[in-house]
From TrEMBL:
Residue span, PAC domain: 233-285
Residue stretches making up the Histidine kinase domain: 296-514
Protein's name in the database: histidine kinase
SMART domains: HATPase_c, HisKA, REC
């Protein structure tokens, strides 16, 4: 949609002011008329709009005979403020009296009032033409300024050669018309040979495959489209170096300034991400080996653990209860350590299939799998999340277990008088709440972004050393593994979320999860940490 036209109409006759505004706005619904009764009021309106209080004035329409200053004096004052804004003299004064003076002064147009409303159609057309001409001229000047800045930058090779990024430009016919040494370095051809080479020739020589052309055309067409406000495109291409090594390049593309509205070419910046891709694949392989190792160790430990547990159950009836209880606690401890080891090994792997799921349903399922005693769960929010539901349930299980079994990571020296250990009424029962977070002002991003959620308990709260809460092996509870919160952080990061620990409203522990994005389309996929 083309921008509207704001007109300032100046006339000392209130009936003519109202008539002018009404007819112009009816002739063209893009015209919005503001009126003034004299030159002083007109300048106040013009200055206020120019200072940003309102949208700037696009055209001034003024009578000649005005109190205080005439139309040409107003024109001179307006020109001092904006030398290019269109100014139409619309007056009932005889042409031979002021026409020559108006033309000499440089007014944009001159039109004499008449009876009826036909002249307002002419006035509307002249306003439209004058504003369109000014906007086109302004756009042309801006394009020239951008082009001059680009030319000055490109011509100054001493600056661009210091940039450790491969840069090159293509003209409208896809011919390389400039490049720096960083771009030319991997080619057999030198820089001077590459300049003037049609880019398709590089495809024919085996440096790139034919898909590069298709991708380039698609991205340039999108950048040129009036339906998008994108200023740059980013995509990946494969480059075959002369030594036979395949490299992966991130390409950033922008349009060169248009000339008279015509496409003139593109400028490109290239980053070699081959090492980063290899490093990521190596990390994935290491994580797989870690998981395999953890599974092997847990398997080898579980077998003798199961044998020991079986024999212990067999001899339990005839043995000293005190000794049997110690053995049972030790075996249970070993099993906890094995489970924690497996979860920690998995947290570095790619999470599984992602899908939409209900936070409330997942929290209920997690609560059902934890020995919660008389503690109670309250759910005050039910957003739809997007991720690996199984891993998120494990995250919640660890938080619930941390709250109920380990006193919310507080030291044992801080007794917890809750119903889990001591019974009592509902007021004394430990309560774990899953609730919504308020949106942070700086939150931004694509898709449907929930505000986030928190898990809070009414226990004794967090310890003094909060910086170590999420560290592997850190625990303040006797018998704790120190795995739980490390697992929570790992699962959150695998989903791209952030987690923070803070004090709850009632003094307990509170864990907040933010940066949660739910795509509007939500297709199933996998994500790497």
């Amino acid at each position: 949609m083309s921008p509207g036209i704001r007109v300032l109409s100046v006339d000392d006759d209130p009936q003519l002011r109202e008539l002018t505004a009404t007819v112009l706005e009816r002739r063209n619904d893009q015209i919005d008329v503001t009126t003034a009764a004299n030159g002083r009021d007109a300048l106040a309106v013009f200055d206020g709009a120019s200072d940003g209080a309102d949208r700037p004035i696009d055209c001034v329409v003024s009578d000649y005979e005005l109190p205080g200053m005439d139309g040409l004096e107003l024109f001179a004052a307006i020109r001092e403020r904006d030398p290019a804004v269109p100014f139409v003299l619309f007056t009932g004064t005889a042409p031979d009296e002021i026409a020559s003076e108006a033309i000499s002064a440089g007014v944009t147009d001159y039109l004499r009032k008449g009876s009826g409303t036909a002249q307002y159609t002419v006035l509307a057309n002249r306003i439209e033409n004058a504003v369109a001409k000014r906007r086109a001229e302004r756009a042309r000047r801006e394009s020239e300024r951008q082009l001059e800045r680009y030319r000055a930058l490109v011509e100054n090779d001493r600056i661009l050669e210091l940039v450790p990024t491969a840069l090159f430009t293509l003209d409208a016919d896809a011919v390389i018309n400039w490049c720096n040494d960083e771009f030319a370095d991997p080619f057999v051809e030198g820089r001077t040979e590459l300049i003037g080479t049609p880019f398709p020739d590089l495809i024919d020589r085996g440096y790139y495959d034919g898909q590069v052309t298709t991708k380039y055309i698609e991205e340039v067409r999108d950048l040129l489209s009036s339906t998008t406000d994108r200023e740059r495109a980013k995509y990946q291409v494969r480059f075959q170096s002369p030594d036979g090594e395949e490299r992966i390049h991130d390409v950033h593309t922008r349009l060169l300034p248009l000339e008279n509205g015509e496409f003139t070419g593109t400028v490109h910046a290239i980053r070699d991400v081959t090492r980063r891709r290899r490093y990521r694949r190596e990390l994935e392989r290491q994580n797989e080996r870690l998981s395999e190792f953890a599974s092997l160790v847990s398997h080898d430990l579980r077998n003798p653990l199961n044998v020991a547990q079986g024999h212990l159950d067999f001899i339990a009836e005839g043995a000293d209860d005190r000794h049997v209880e110690k053995l049972q606690r030790s075996l249970a401890r070993i099993e906890e350590l094995i489970d924690g080891l497996l979860q920690l090994a998995r947290q570095g792997k790619a999470i599984g299939d992602e899908e939409r799921f209900s936070l409330a349903d997942t929290a209920q399922a997690a609560w059902a799998t934890v020995d919660t005693g008389d503690a109670r769960l309250e759910i005050e929010t039910d957003p739809m999340l997007y991720g690996d539901e199984t891993r998120v349930r494990s995250l919640l299980e660890n938080l619930f277990r941390n709250a109920v079994e380990h006193g919310s990571t507080s030291p044992d020296s801080r007794p917890r008088q809750d119903a889990v250990e001591h019974g009592g009424d509902d007021a004394d029962r430990l309560t774990v709440t899953v609730g919504p977070l308020e949106r942070e002002p700086q939150s931004a991003g694509s898709g449907d972004r929930p505000d986030g959620f928190y898990v809070e308990d009414t226990g004794p709260g967090l310890p003094a050393d909060r910086e170590s809460l999420f560290e592997f092996g850190h625990t303040t509870a006797a018998g704790g593994t120190g795995f739980g919160l490390a697992i929570v952080e790992g699962i959150a990061e695998a989903h791209g979320w952030t987690v923070a620990a803070c004090d709850g409203d009632d003094g307990g522990a509170r864990f907040e999860f933010r940066d949660i994005t739910v795509p509007t389309g939500g297709t199933t996929s996998a994500r790497s940490t």
